Amino acid sequence: MKKIVFIIASTLLIVACNNLKDNEFLISGTANGVENGKKVFVEIQTETGSLAKDTAVVKDGKFELKGITDGIDIGFIRIENEEINLPIILEEGKIEINIVKDSLHKSTLGGTPNNEKFHTFNLETRAISEKVVKFEKDNGPAMQKAQMSKDTVTINKLLKEYKKFQNEMNDYSKKFIKENPDAYLSVLLLENFLMRQYLTPEEVKTYFNGLSKEIQDTKSGKKIKTALDALNAVVVGKPAPNFSAPSPDGKTISLKESLGKVTIIDFWASWCGPCRAENPNVVALYNEFHPQGLNIIGVSLDKDATKWKDAIAKDGLVWPHVSNLKFWEDPIAKQYNVQSIPATFILDAKGVIVAKDLRGDALRAKVKELLAIK
Question: What is the CATH number of the domain that holds 253?
Answer without folding.
Answer: 3.40.30.10
